[in-house]
Each structure stands twice: as structure tokens, then as C-alpha cells.
Amino acid sequence: MNFAGKVVLITGASSGIGAATAIKFAKYGACLALNGRNVENLKKVAAQCGEAGSSPALVVGDVSKEADTARIWSETLDKYGKLDVLVNNAGIIETGSIENTSLEQYDRVMATNLRSIYQLTMLATPELVKSKGNIVNVSSVNGIRSFPGVLAYNISKMGVDQLTRCVALELAAKGVRANCVNPGVTVTNLHTRGGMDAETYKKFLEHSKTTHALGRPGTVDEVANAITFLASDLASFTTGLSLAVDGGRHAMCPR
Ligand code: NDP
After folding, report:
1. Which of 80, 118, 153, 201 is catalytic?
2. 242 close to ligand 1 (CB < 6 Angstrom)
3. Is 106 a catalytic site residue?
4. Which terminus of the chain is more solvent-facing, meaning fewer CB atoms within 10 Å of its CB: N or C?
5. Could you tell me which residues are beta bridge partners of residue 57?
6. Residue 255: per-residue pLDDT
């Protein structure tokens, strides 16, 4: 895989899947714009990209805020003057069912996980059309299967899959591809940041041995492999795909 001369913008690159994806793109020679809110963490990821010879631009901001996302985009374009790959990865999880998820929670999850992708994709599309570039969205197994107790998250991720497919069809004639990855449980900070305490998270990872056919949770590197593949020319005839990176979880049924 070779991304030499290609400009890649990754949201949520300061941690977890986004950070691993940034480092992988750096190894493949990409010019990077890395977004996140935590500047210290972003600098650490940028330093790791630096070891691979890349010097990423940091486009700091909160993607759930419209003005921030507009600025994240304008700073990226000011820096590089084009875009080849947009990776919409930033996301949060919040627990709650229809009985106890507040509208504030719903709005926060939807603004971060879905509305921000809509906005950034809208802004980036003219440049992606020029470059015949592509989009990789980070959805979840929750986008294609239904789980109780994380209602707003499920709805947001299902929206990401539908957005991906529709945009893929809308931009196909212009040579722009759009795909998403649907990870299963992946070891990152997502769940603890979403309120899970350390002991419960440990049990959750243990339980993942039975909820994933391959008998374990996934790693950030495994998801980053799928993202870089979809973004690369190796996937030149693939668009509108929801690619499960979940150890077979999407195919499982209780019995
Ligand atoms: P992490 O919590 O480790 O990383 C989340 C990233 O998103 C951080 O870089 C964080 O930046 C960024 N982020 C969150 N909210 C915002 C915001 N409002 N504005 C800008 N950046 C933001 O979790 P993951 O790496 O696991 O999550 C990445 C994606 O993967 C998410 O979309 C998640 O839903 C998805 N996913 C994760 C799974 C898992 O099991 N881990 C499974 C399926 C999907 P900062 O810290 O700087 O605020």
C-alpha cells in the first residue's frame, strides 16, 4: 500500500482506532491532518507518525460543534490545498435505553457520531471529487445489529452505515468511493470514557470471548488495517461497503 503524496484527514486521531490508523497511514507515506480535542494526546500520536517520517498537521477541535468542524476543514485545506482520503472516526458511546436516555444524551451522541460526519463530508466532497478520493467512516457492529442498552449509539451507527451507502451511490459517477468499517469490541478507551468502570470493563472483555466467534475482542491495528485497505487503490472497485471487523460477531445468533 502506498499513500505517498496523498492527503488524509482523520477525526478522533488522538486515541484508540484513530491513533492506530494515523500511524499506519504515516508508515504508508501519507500527508496527515489529525483531529481530536486532547492536544497532548494528539502531539504524542504525531510524534509516533514522525518516527515513520510524517509530520502531521494538528487540526484540533470538537467535531460536535459546527464552527469547530468548519474550522477543522478550513485548516486542513489551508495546509495542504487538497484532500484524498477522509476518515470519519471520532465517536463516543453512552449507555441508556428508551426508558432512561435523555434527549441531551441523544443529541450529544448524534451530534458527535453522525451529524459531524454529515457536515465534514459535505464540506470535503468538492475536494474529494477533484481528487477522485474516498471516504472511510468508522461505524460499528452496532450499525448492523441491534443491542439493548446503548440505544442512541445504535441509532447513530446505523445512520453512519446508511449515510455511507447513500453517499457512495451519489458520488460514484464522480469517481469518489465511500465505505465504512464495522468493528466489534475493540480494546480502546471508548467504553471506560462512556462510563464503564475498570472492573466492569475487564468482565466485558472477558465476555467478548463468547460474543465474538473468533473468541476474543479486536485490536486497533486490525481495524486500522481494514481502514487503510478501503482507502487504498487495492479497494478501487469497492464502494458502499460496510466491512465487519468483528471476529464474526455480526453473523452470530443466540441459540
Ligand atoms: P477512543 O475513546 O479511544 O477514541 C475516540 C476518539 O474520538 C478520540 O480521539 C477522541 O478525541 C475522539 N472524539 C470523541 N469525541 C470527539 C469530538 N466531539 N470531537 C473530536 N474528537 C472526538 O475510542 P475508539 O478508538 O474505540 O473509537 C473510535 C471509533 O470507533 C468511534 O467512532 C467508535 O464508536 C468506534 N468503535 C469502537 C469500538 C470499540 O469497541 N472500541 C467498536 C465499534 C466502533 P479526544 O480524546 O481528543 O477528545
Report:
1. 153
2. no
3. no
4. C
5. 33
6. 80
- Between CA 192 and CA 150, with CA 242 as vertex, the angle to 5 degrees is 35
- State the cell numbers at 160: 453512519
- Please count the other Cβ atoms lying within 10 Å of the Cβ belonging to residue 203: 11
- What the chain holds in terms of domains, given with CATH numbers, is 7-251 (3.40.50.720)
Q: Whole-angstrom Cα distance, residue 16 to residue 135?
A: 19
- Mean pLDDT score, 168-187: 98
Output the pTM of the full model. Answer: 0.98
Stretch 150-154: mean pLDDT, rounded?
Answer: 98
pLDDT mean across residues, the chain:
97
Average pLDDT over residues 31-45: 98
User: Edge-to-edge strands of the sheet including 134-138?
Assistant: 57-58, 31-34, 7-10, 85-88, 134-138, 177-183, 242-245
Ligand 1 pocket: which of 59, 65, 92, 181 to mutate (most atoms within 8 A of CB): 92
How many angstroms separate the CA atoms of 208 and 191, rounded? Answer: 13
Task: Give the alpha-carbon dihedral of 122, 75, 24, 243, to 10 degrees.
Answer: -10
Report CA Rg, the chain.
Answer: 17
Which atom number of ligand 1 is nearest to the Cα of residue 64?
18
114-147 residue pLDDT tens:
999 999 999 999 999 999 999 999 999 999 999 9
- For atom 41 of ligand 1, the residue with the nearest CA is 186
- Closest CA to ligand 1's atom 48: 37
Does the Cβ of 85 fall within 6 Å of ligand 1? Answer: no
Q: For residues 2 and 28, give the distance between their C-alpha atoms in angstroms, rounded to a whole number.
A: 5
**For ligand 1, is residue 16 a contact (CB within 6 Å)?**
yes
Taking the CA of residue 63 as reference, the ligand 1 atom at the shortest distance is 19
What is the pLDDT averaged over residues 165-182? 98
